[in-house]
Amino acid sequence: MKKKVKIVAGITWAFVCLILIIILFPGLNSFSASTAKLPFMKINPNYTGGEVANQIVAESCTLDIRKPVFDGLFKERKNGFVQLDWRGNLPGKIVDSIDFDHDKKIDFCIFIDRKQLKTTIDQFNKNVKNIIISTPTSYGWSVRVGLRK
Amino acid sequence: MTDSFILGLSSGSACLVTCGMVMFPYLMAGSAGVKRIAIDLSLFLFTRFVIYFILATMAWYFGQAIFSNPLVRNFVPGILYIVFAVMLVWYSISNSRNPKCPAEIVKTVNDKRLVPIFLGVVNSLGFCPALFIILTKGATQGTLLQSYLAFLAFFVGSSLWFLPLPLAGQIQKKEVLKTVGILATGLAGIIFMIKGLTNLIGGIING
Amino acid sequence: MDNTLLSSSLNKSFGKSLLYTLPMFLITFMFMTGGRLNFSDPYSLLATLIAFLLVNILYFMMHYSGKTDRYRVVLFIIFAMSLSFTLIKNMIAIRSSMSFSQADVLECKIPFCHLVIPMMIIPAAFTKSIIFPGSILNGFANISSMVVLWLVATIVLGRGFCSWGCFYGGWDDGFSRIRKRPVIKHINEISRWMPFAVLFMVALTAALTLVPTYCDWICPFKTVTEFEQVTSLESASKAAIFISLFGGLVVVLPILTRKRTQCSFLCPLGAINSLSNKVTPFTVKVDREVCNECFKCVEVCPLYALSREDIRAGKVSIFCSKCGKCVDACTKNAIHYGIKGVPAGHLKNFSRNLFLFVSFLFLAIFSAGAIISSFQSLLKLVF
Ligand code: SF4
Ligand code: SF4
Predict the structure, then answer these.
(1) Counting Cβ atoms within 10 Å, is residue C115 exposed (0-12), middle (13-18) or buried (19+)?
(2) CA atoms within 13 A on the CB side of C364
(3) How far is the CA of A98 from the centre of ligand 1 (A)?
(4) What pLDDT, in 10s, does the model give residues C98-132?
(5) CATH class of the domain at C281-346
(6) Model pTM greater than 0.90?
(7) Does any CB of chain B come closer than 8 Å to the CB of residue C194?
């Protein structure tokens, strides 16, 4: 009897799998859309650069200053970064003063020479470290500046 | 700290299955319930912690003396990492690996209450390549605190495996766990080999 | 009983094989053409027709000849090569190079592949996010669809994914067939567990650093897909590591051992897939009553999934990818596809037919896009 139940269960499971495979491809878009809604289906801020905290609009371009990212597995890490994104029609040389922690004090000044691919910063906040990334992007230019807590 | 934790965690798994099975009967022998087991295990872990604390201090002080010469500082740690990492990898792939755990000596201890302490000493001083690597790391840290942190991470990583020791009797597939642990130790060795090479190349560039 | 008779017991007559191929014919036609043929682009039409015929002829031959692996591997290798070809072609068209830049990472434009999955589980649980610079739902190889495809395939096929779904496996499977006889015959038994050790280490390091360490440092298939631009000592070391691993584990060792050494000793996803062999209904069974212990199956298994002890104990190990090579090699038909719960030696044909339909359908449809696209490019190149 037990043996028969096992056989029936095995074959039933095999047929369920057959159906799963048959509906997998036609249903892929809707399955993926549902999966994308799961709470963990978003890209970690260490990759996206974090949420935009402040946007500075100039004549031909905008600067997005993102929230500093310190995300670790369980808690915030000692070292992190702040990402800056310039979008739009950018000048050849970019000079901006950044207050990323909204304390009304300049934390660092950044100088980008887009032609020479050269970026430098002047730090006024002891928690600002160095430039991690400075690169042209499809929308303009992005920089990540290292921070410590 | 991350690499010390990983080293502890990977070598700890193999250590648990090789040595844990020897320790288990002694730690549990005559124990009357969970409380006794918890006390024995805490004593064992505490002893390991103390030994690592002493080792971290000694490693750092010796390191200060030995590595004060910039030439030595640029080359020796990298070479030591590579040598110990090769030993670790060899340990994981070698067929003639000695399966005996130093904790076997515990059979010579008569007073059962001292067993957890004795085991803690033997286990933390059971000189394996992983410990050599962590000693090198401790010796090359900038401050004593950093050396403590490296040892602490190693201690936490390796101790995690001992927490479920009371359940060891029920662990099926001990062989699989042991094999995977030993192989993971070898991989940790490779990570440190790369670290050693990077140190050495950095040393050559700086030197 | 006569060996030839037994060995041919899985094959079918021409008509019966055609009948068995009919459902595959209809379903693949629907998927490959979308229900109607596009006559406006002759290259695309021709490429689709060639791919469609190829798939169905291979499936027909599996039934007609009773051999599985012999025809599976053709599509499997073509899939691996086509995918790499299509990916590289797209990348060169978009970026004029096979390497991706820092900007691609910042903009989360990196195509996702299933090998990332073992590293994203712990961070997903604790940080409620994915540690990969890809797109969740949009664009080519987005994270959601790849996760769904892998998850369903793994539940249904178990480690069968590694012989019927993975677009990397075809590389070492292909190289493992170049020599007739192996030069290296024995390996240390414990190495079979290496993927679990790799899984442990990469899952741990990825969780602690929130970086998909396997992709970043190890994955040998970056050689045939895409890789980080070499701009520093670190990126140069990474390149040296993945290129040597590709050369060693995907090319040289498979040629010398006739085994899929990358899949046997390195891939962390292979380890997870092995565990999922416990869930899938399909399996490979050993009929002890007919087995004469010739151990041909042990010799040919490309994944070190069979040992003499396994055969004596009448079971295959969790490493089995259901490739069918052992089934093809067994002259007694003692090792065969089976369904869990059904005792070994029973319903051999039924189990094989059902498994073949499920697994081949997955492979055919999953591979169709890449194969059609690369055939189309080749046609354009030739004419
Ligand atoms: S072991 Fe890994 S690379 Fe090989 S087929 Fe399986 S998933 Fe693909
Ligand atoms: S046991 Fe057979 S089916 Fe499984 S991987 Fe080995 S050869 Fe392939």
Answers:
(1) buried
(2) 32
(3) 47
(4) 778 888 899 998 889 999 999 999 999 999 999 99
(5) alpha beta
(6) no
(7) yes
